[in-house]
Structures are given as C-alpha cells and as structure tokens.
C-alpha cells in the first residue's frame, strides 16, 4: 500500500495536499525500515499517527496535541502528549519518553509562526544527524485562512516568508554550522534536512528574523 493509499485509508487531509510525494521521495522502502522514532506536532484524533505506524513499521510514534478532546488515539506504538507545541515542559517530557532522537519531526500544529519557531528551536537538537528531516506543513494556512491564522499576535512573520529569506541567501552559510544544509519545498510543506551535527540551531539567525 502506498503512502497516498494510507492517507486516504485513515482520512487525513495530507492526501488532499499530496504530502505523500515529498515524504515518499525521502523515505524509500529501505529507509522506512530504518526509521525508529517519529514525532508529529498536532495529531488531532490520530489519523496521521495510524499512517506513520504502517508506513514506518519499526518506529515508535509520538505526538503532541493541544486539545485533549481530540487526543483519543493510543496504541502499543503511539503515544500522544497533551499540551502546547511551544511549551518546553511538554517537549521535555516528550523527549524523555522517546528516549532517543527522532528520524522525522512533523509540525502540523497551530500553524502560528511563534509556535513553529519555538518548536523548531527546541527540537532541532533532537533530530538525528545526518539525514534527519524536520517537516513544516500547511505553510499556506495564513493565506488560505487569514482570520484563523493571522500572525498579528506573533513576534515572527509567517514561516513561509522566513524560509524564503533563508533560501535566498543563507543555505550555503548555514551548511555544516548546525543549521539546515538543505530545504525541500513541495506545495505547502517544507522539509528541512539536518545534515551533520553542529551547534544548536539559532532560529533568529537561521531564519533572518533579527
């Protein structure tokens, strides 16, 4: 069964956005079997966790969901933590429970730039080098739904704008310096490729926000 088939099977909107294409590009059959730990921020009722359980047969799956009424899914391979994706205490508990770094981290949470930057800043150090992938989904949320995802209350501009700034001039400067040596953008998802280990990621510098 293909990744797109799994997304349709469990009725996640990732199929509508064709997020299967970039994930499928980076995770062929051999690499899927090597993945041991996946984290998704923003799980809702757990449809995507079911997808990842089947797609990564040897992985433990972790999730963070803000609304407890949604976090109803649990299995012997998946666990959801209740709380904000930008809360360091929640993320600390999550990392401790995982017991290791992550092969893949997916931000499908609030889509608010402050939360996205907070999660990226905290979790980047727990992404496995090399070849770890940090995906930020629904970059178009603030455009499609400006009332729901307005960034007026946020310190940071939309994540899509910050990534574009980086792509324009910072990839080469960050390579090998603890930043993302590459960024793949497909539709409304950006995949940040970790590369070799380095110093902690300075998001303000990486995203040129200061």
What's a concise summary of this model?
It is built from ten helices and seven strands. The chain is an alpha/beta fold.
Describe this structure as you would to a colleague.
The chain is of the alpha/beta class and 210 residues long. The protein has one domain (3-206): 3-Layer(aba) Sandwich (Rossmann fold), CATH 3.40.50. Helix content is 35%, strand content 16%. It contains ten helices and seven strands. It has helices spanning 3-9, 20-26, 29-34, 47-55, 88-98, 113-123, 141-144, 159-169, 171-174, 203-206; strands spanning 37-41, 60-65, 78-82, 104-107, 133-136, 182-186, 189-193. The chain has a seven-stranded mixed beta sheet, with helices on both faces. Strand 6 (182-186) and strand 7 form a beta hairpin. The protein is globular. The model has no long low-confidence stretch (mean pLDDT 85).
């Amino acid at each position: 069964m293909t990744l797109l088939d799994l997304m349709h099977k469990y009725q996640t909107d990732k199929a509508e956005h064709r997020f299967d294409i970039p994930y499928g590009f980076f995770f062929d059959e051999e690499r899927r079997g090597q993945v041991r730990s996946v984290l998704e921020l923003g799980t809702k009722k757990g449809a995507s966790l079911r997808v990842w359980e089947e797609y990564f047969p040897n992985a433990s799956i972790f999730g963070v969901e803000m609304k407890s009424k949604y976090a109803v899914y649990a299995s012997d391979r998946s666990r959801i933590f209740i709380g904000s994706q930008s809360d360091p205490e929640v993320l600390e508990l999550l990392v401790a429970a995982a017991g290791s770094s992550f092969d893949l981290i997916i931000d499908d949470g609030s889509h608010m730039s402050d939360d996205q930057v907070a999660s990226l800043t905290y979790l980047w150090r727990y992404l496995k080098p090399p070849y770890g992938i940090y995906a930020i989904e629904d970059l178009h949320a603030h455009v499609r739904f400006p009332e729901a995802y307005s960034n007026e209350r946020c310190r940071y501009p939309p994540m899509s704008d910050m990534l574009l700034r980086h792509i324009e001039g910072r990839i080469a400067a960050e390579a090998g310096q603890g930043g993302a040596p590459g960024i793949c953008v497909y539709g409304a998802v950006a995949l940040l490729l970790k590369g070799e280990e380095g110093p902690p990621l300075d998001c303000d510098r990486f995203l040129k926000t200061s």
